[in-house]
Amino acid sequence: MPTVNDILDSMDYGPAPEAAGEVTAWLTARAPFGHFIDGSFTAPADTFATDNPATGEALAQVSQGSAQDVALAVKAARKAAPKWAGLAGHERAKYLYAIARHLQKRARFLAVLEVLDNGKPIRETRDIDVPLAIRHFYHHAGWAELLTDEFPDHTPHGVCGQIIPWNFPLLMLAWKIAPALAAGNTMVLKPAEYTPLTALAFAEICAEVGLPKGVVNIVTGDGATGAALVASDVDKIAFTGSTDVGRTIRRATAGTPKALTLELGGKSPFIVFPDADLDAAVEGVVDAIWFNQGEVCCAGSRILVSEAIARDFTDRLRARLGKLRVGDPLDKCTDLGAIVHPTQLTRIRDLVSAGEAAGATLIQPEMQLPAKGCYFAPGLLVGAEPANPASAEEIFGPVATVTTFRTPAEAVQLANNTRYGLSASIWSENITLALDIAAQVKAGVVWVNCTNQFDAAAGFGGMRESGFGREGGREGMAAYLRAPEVKSKPEASAPDFKAMPSPATLASSGIDRTPKLYIGGKQVRPDSGHSYTITAKGRELGLAPLGSRKDIRNAVEAAHKAGAWGKQTGHNRAQVLYYIAENLAARQGEFEARLKEAGHDASEVAATVARAFYYAAWADKFDGAVKSTQSAKITLAMHEPWGVMGVACPDASPLLGFASLVLPAIAMGNRVVAVPAQSMPLLATDLYQVFDTSDLPGGVVNIVTGPRDDLAKTLAQHDDVAAMWYCGDAQGREMVKGESAGNLKAIWAFENRDWRDAQGRELLNRATQIKTIWVPYGE
Ligand code: NAD
Fold first, then answer.
1. Which residues does residue 467 pair with via DSSP β-bridges, in sequence order?
2. Ligand 1 mutation pick, 297, 301, 744, max ligand atoms within 8 A of CB
């Protein structure tokens, strides 16, 4: 007779499948599906199958959206837009509440439908995807209610084109649709081709709650449909998906006024220090990389573990791996379900093999995978060097690399050794160390002693090539609203660079009194050795150095080295800005004379002094927030500087325009490479002494004079420039957006404005990005 110990050892779970009958009946009754346009479903056309990855069987036929379908949907959304935007926030809120209630009523149905279409386990759709989607609609119903108080004078964008991936189909839909509705936008959403079904069920809910027709439109299809939506007559594109497609969309929207947010890929570090609660950290890994089969943009896919505990931790992970259950996603005891599609399975296999070929050892438990369907056993690639393709590429499957580090500094260096910056998870019982690391990692979301925490009230989104923009919370709402219109003001005409004297002319002019560039706190000659003539009202005012690509590169390098500026206290930065204001005021007469000589309004000087005081005042007051998310978790929203910013200044208002952009940027801790007014850069070059005598550390402000658009192009292309502001004409604005696609930097490109009114929170918001830090508390 077996002993109790024998029974405990051999005991296993019995099957506990969730019934799918209601969903299959719905599919039988409803499929094949057309698109949901203007409040009703179109006739199915050009259909393709969406499969159940757990079995390989087709679930339903859906329609491949053509450019005409997209155009029809956009037209319906356009027609519905004025009325929807014109409703009182309270009225819109009622629809969002109704949607949330209906989602709640159909929660089990949606959880099962998502399992069938995506392959993810029912435990996750039931306990995470669907409840979070519901929470998103409730939260944003609240925003609709509060909009006029909290975002006075803001307006919706109009029609939003929204494109989502397959890994959290309903949840990504909620992240897109809830804030867009609350803000008063109408929309056309394209779900991913592998997982369109919950979006179609959601369309039914929109009809059920009586949402005015045309407000939400769903067009199914693949990347071609997505590309058609990007090219269509929408006012904003909100995209979640891969970095490569994000880059294509950045280029495609460059020549348009379309607003853009990009939530892209990641290769997020999961850092375990020796004093971590190792059993908790093991469960953290389960949630980080084996949750949703690792098909998670913010998956902790690079485990960085202190050498001191690496063996112990890996052993514990190995033991835990052996206990994971892979199989029927409808079974409530399943930990990992099916991979979404055979194409994705091939990609995972290829990258894991490449990781092994590059020297890592694959640990995978012995397990029997289901004979049918798309499955991959969870694993670890131990000993993966940073250069290993498995360490660098997003596998988007249930396999993390394991790499060791010796010191906290090395952990940070390894964590940041990626082109992405979506999230990070840090494990240490020493909260001082954990928060110090949280401040240093380049990631939009940081989880301390937890991972993959989400809430509608907290911003989610990336840095670097993980995209720009945030979803959730106040910052997510702001992304669906237009700030009050700023009146544009025509620019002065561009100078004639042919007027540049040849080097011979310069040499013959005797002593070189030409102002220099200002790089790293020093005055330096331009690499070209050339200058150009500054004229005003037909009179020559002097020469300005002709900066080039090389000078921009040097300036970016100098700015990069001045990183300590971002770590100074706001108070210290304020002191420097006060000095700048005082020193400029002391030389006010001199600057006024310069401006008058160039035919500009001399009162710009007093306004610039005032602006320096203004941003000095802000330097220690642009507070972040503590968000109301889950219980027993502190969720911080910290304003972080971008790092190195490129600023191409307006040609008009050569002093005030420059100061209005550079001062808020440095007040927030950024270092700036600025291209001053190209036709009158001499006011900016006169500022060198002001900076030098104001304790501004070298490299915080760098000034390269010359042809704005050539220099802006180099700045836009530069990988080490994290964000760029460009003031100029439509052609230039298009150019910087297109050229920035390489590292997907955030671009603010705008027309010249009246710089007298141009100050305030909008600039501070644009000078910072939000890092969300989650810290749980309680034993
Ligand atoms: P994908 O980029 O291939 O597809 C995403 C969506 O874009 C799909 O709907 C697809 O049809 C559409 N699309 C494809 N080509 C397009 C084009 N040229 N123009 C317009 N639309 C196009 O990504 P995927 O494989 O579906 O999803 C996985 C990726 O999504 C991963 O890189 C993951 O990290 C990322 N992701 C990011 C987040 C986030 O919030 N940052 C969340 C989830 C997923």
1. 263
2. 297
- Rounded to the nearest angstrom, the distance between the alpha carbon of 465 and the centre of ligand 1 is 14
Atom of ligand 1 nearest to the CA of 244: 2
- Residue 539: what pLDDT? 83
Partners of 40 in the β-ladder: 37
pLDDT for 507: 47
Edge-first strand listing for the sheet containing 633-641: 361-363, 379-382, 399-405, 302-306, 269-272, 423-427, 445-448, 768-776, 633-641, 625-627
Residue 256 Cα to ligand 1 middle (Å): 21
Counting from 1 in the atom list of ligand 1, the atom nearest the Cα of 245 is 2
Q: Which residues contact 775 (CB under 8 A, 6 or more apart)?
A: 431, 434, 435, 448, 449, 633, 634, 635, 636
Atom of ligand 1 nearest to the CA of 466: 41
The CA angle 652-658-663, to the nearest 5 degrees, is 150
206, 297, 298, 450: which one is catalytic?
297
- Whether residue 245 has its Cβ less than 6 Å from ligand 1: yes
Give catalytic status of residue 206 as yes or no. Answer: no
pLDDT of residue 246: 97
Give me ligand 1 centre to Cα 127, in Å.
Answer: 24
Question: 0.85 exceeded by the pTM?
Answer: yes
10-14, 188-192, 643-647: least confidently modelled range: 10-14
- Taking the centre of ligand 1 as the mean of its atom positions, its distance from the CA of residue 510, in whole angstroms, is 61
Ligand 1 nearest-atom number relative to CA 175: 40
Nearest to 673 by CA among 742, 723, 610, 707: 723
Q: Which residue's structure tokens are 């839909």?
A: 173
pLDDT for residue 487: 82
Give the side-chain half-sphere CA count within 13 A for 238. Answer: 31
Which whole number is the average pLDDT over 622-640? 96
Output the residue whose Cα is nearest ligand 1's atom 3.
Answer: 242
Write down how long the chain is: 779
Please tell me the distance from the alpha carbon of residue 177 to that of residue 174, in angstroms, as a whole number: 5
Is ligand 1 within 6 A of the CB of residue 219? no
Residue whose CB lies within 8 A of the most ligand 1 atoms, among 234, 240, 445, for a mutation test? 240
Specify the pairing of strand 40-41 against strand 36-37.
Answer: antiparallel
- The owner of tokens 């890996």 is 314
In this structure, how many other beta carbons lie within 10 angstroms of the beta carbon of residue 599? 12
Q: How many CB atoms lie within 10 A of CB 298?
A: 27
Q: 655: exposed, middle or buried (C-beta count within 10 Å: 0-12, 13-18, 19+)?
A: buried
Distance, CA of 490 to CA of 301 (rounded, Å): 50
Inter-residue contact 448 to 435 (CB < 8 Å): yes
Distance in Å, CA 165 to ligand 1 centroid: 4
The 10s digit of each residue's pLDDT in 460-493 is 999 999 999 999 999 999 999 999 888 888 776 6
What is the average pLDDT value for the chain, to the nearest integer?
Answer: 95
Query: Closest ligand 1 atom to the C-alpha of 165?
Result: 26
- DSSP character for 441? S
506, pLDDT greater than 80: no
Residue 263 catalytic? yes
How many angstroms separate the CA atoms of 133 and 138, rounded? 9
Q: 341, 194 in Cβ contact below 8 A? A: yes
3-class DSSP assignment, residue 508: helix
CA nearest neighbour of 555 among 592, 516, 594, 529: 516
Written as six digits, the tokens of 744 are 């997907």
683 contacts 654 by C-beta, under 8 angstroms: yes
Phi-psi label, residue 631: left if phi above 0, alpha if psi -120 to 50, beta otherwise: beta
Calculate the alpha carbon distances from 95 to 48, 144, 159, 465, 617 in Å: 32, 10, 18, 35, 42
DSSP H helical ranges for 653-759 = 656-667, 682-692, 708-717, 730-739
Cα 337 to Cα 358: distance, rounded to the nearest angstrom? 28
